[in-house]
Structure formats: C-alpha cells, structure tokens
Amino acid sequence: MVFNKDNPHNDLPLLPPECEVETKAILKKAIKANKALAELKSKGSIIPNQNILIDTLTLIEAKDSSEIENIFTTHDKLYQASLLGEKNADPSTKEVECYRQALWHGIEYLRKRDLSTNLFIELVQIIKKNNASVRRIPGTKIANSQDKVIYTPPEGEDVIRTKLFNLEKFIHSNDDIDPLIKLAIIHYQFEAIHPFSDGNGRVGRIINILYLVHQNLLDTPVLFLSRYFIKHRKGYYEGLRNVTEKNDWSNWILYMLDAVEHTACQTMKKIDDIVNLMNNFTKIIKEKHPKIYSKDLIEVLFSKPYCRILSLTDAEIVGRQTASEYLKRIEELGLIKGTKIGKEMVYLNLGLLDILRK
C-alpha cells in the first residue's frame, strides 16, 4: 500500500524489516561503531567513582533530549535544581528534571526486568507527571515547523499495542543481527508507532540507552545520542521519513551507527578531560592543604558541577563548620567559586562545567 502522510499508518510493517539490513557498508560501519563503544565501556572504568560520570552525563542528556522537544533550560538552572531540589525551578527545568528521573527509573527497572511496553508507559508517566498510557483517541498528527502534516501514526489502541508487542519480541529475539543495527531499527519503529499523545521522542531516546545497557554494550548509562541528533537534526528527520516513505533502512542505519561512533569518541574525550581535572585538583590540594585532602573530598567536588556544605556532611567527610572552612580554602586556590543561591552558599566547579558544556 502506498504511504499517505494524512492517513493513520496502520500498515506500518512489523519487525524485522523484510529488506537486507546488514549490507557490506552497514557491517563495515557497525564494526567501527562497536569498537568505539567497547573503548568507551573500558574507558569508563578509569573514573574512580562511576556516579561522577553517570550523574553529570545524565543531566546533560536530560537537557539535550528535552531541547529537541523545544523545552529549554540552562545548564546552570538544571544543576541548581539537581542540587537544591526543583521546588523553585521554572517549568522547563522541572520538565527536564522529570526526564532525568525517568532515565534513572529505567535503569533501576532493568535490574529486575526486561524492556517492555509496561516500562515505556511508566517512563512517559514520569516524564509527563500524569497517568498517560497508549493512545486511545484518534487525531494525532506529526507536523513540521511550518505546521504541515508529515506523518500520521497508527491509530487504535489494539493496533498500537500489537505493534508494541511486536517491537518487544524483536528487542528480545535471539537473531544474529548486530545489536547496534538493531538499535537503529528499534528507534525508528518506536518513533513510527508513536504510542503516546506526548513524550514519545524523550521515551524513545531513553530506550536507546536502556537497550545498550540491556545488551551489556555498556555497564552504565554514559552514551547519549541527543546532542548528535540536535547537531544533525536534518539528517535525523530525513532518515526517519525515508524509512517510512521509501523503505530506505540503509541510510537510516548508517546515520545511527555514525551517531554511536561519534558520540562514543566525544564521551571518551570528556572522560579524559574530567580525569585530568580531578588529578589537577588532587595535586594542588595535596600540595597546598595536605591536611584537608581526601579521595572522598575530590569525588564530592566532581559528583556534580555544584556542591555545598551539605554535600560534604552528607558524605560524612567532616562536620558542618569544618566543611565550610574546607570549601573556602579550596575556593582560595581558584579551583571552585562560591555564589549565593537564595540563602545558601553554593560552590561551582568551573572547570567541570566547561567540560560538560562542550
């Protein structure tokens, strides 16, 4: 049947695709992407406390993924909300924080269960802070920036759930398809099903990282593709559209493999930069204030770009009065910068902020 953008795409083909998805060009690119991902998995182990990397990178991903949906906040607002709580944050920052909470929920979910439609529904409920479920009401249309319809997703709860069940089966099937090639196929299919009234893009991008962890391609959630999608937005949307309209799986899969390889290399560079900065902090504090140095102190200073007195006391490094003195001494060394947020003094790790913003 010929695709019509104005009609519900209830004929969206089930998986696996009937065409060849492991061409010579795709397999060649998959080898490079897998190599970069394996190097990233190994590189992550050089950070002494994995939470340092996970906490900071998930904040970046939350911001970037939400930006794709035209939900904008700044790194500073997001880090402050993460440290001080979202009570006084603006609506966009709160929505980005919900995305981060959904991502963590997904990681915890995978410790006991597999990727499933139930998980997808839980993710969108956390993101949207409501009781959203699979679409029941017809009329959903996908439009471009000129408000022209470019795609009408499948309609009817039974139709959508059938396609989601097929997607689950494909995710967990014991086939010989390279997992990164499957990642590209899974991402397209979820976005084409478009099972929810809102939040599909963000749920789909969380599924990406959960799938990589589920396949043991990564130990921890440290590879996020949203920034690549933003920088190569035209290729992203053209790739999705061409699978739908022309059955062009090849160029879409190559795009996704490029995204994995490029992002893995960039993330490795971030890890190296963070480790070098941590070593520099260690060297300076040991030389200038050896009595206050501890491995735990360094880790607290890098667990988030912002820290406060409570960060040191919660980590049971020192008491409140001593914690205040420690942070003032470290600020005098030029390593952190104090600023008042409300009534509280918060200390910024400017070097770490610069690395994360790149």
TrEMBL record:
Sections of the chain in a coiled coil:
none
Where ATP is bound, by residue?
69, 194, 198-205, 236-237
In alphabetical order, the GO MF annotations are: ATP binding
InterPro entries associated with the record: Fic/DOC_N, Fido, Fido-like_dom_sf, Fido_containing, SoFic-like, SoFic-like_C
Write down the superkingdom of origin. Bacteria
| Family matches, as Gene3D superfamilies | Fido-like domain
Pfam family, any one: Fic
Chain ranges of the Fido domain: 115-258
Q: Report keywords, A-Z.
A: ATP-binding, Nucleotide-binding
Q: Where is the active site?
A: 194
* PANTHER family, per the entry: FIDO DOMAIN-CONTAINING PROTEIN DDB_G0283145, PROTEIN ADENYLYLTRANSFERASE SOFIC
Name recorded for this polypeptide: Addiction module protein
Please give the organism: Candidatus Nucleicultrix amoebiphila FS5
- Lineage per the UniProt record: Bacteria, Pseudomonadati, Pseudomonadota, Alphaproteobacteria, Holosporales
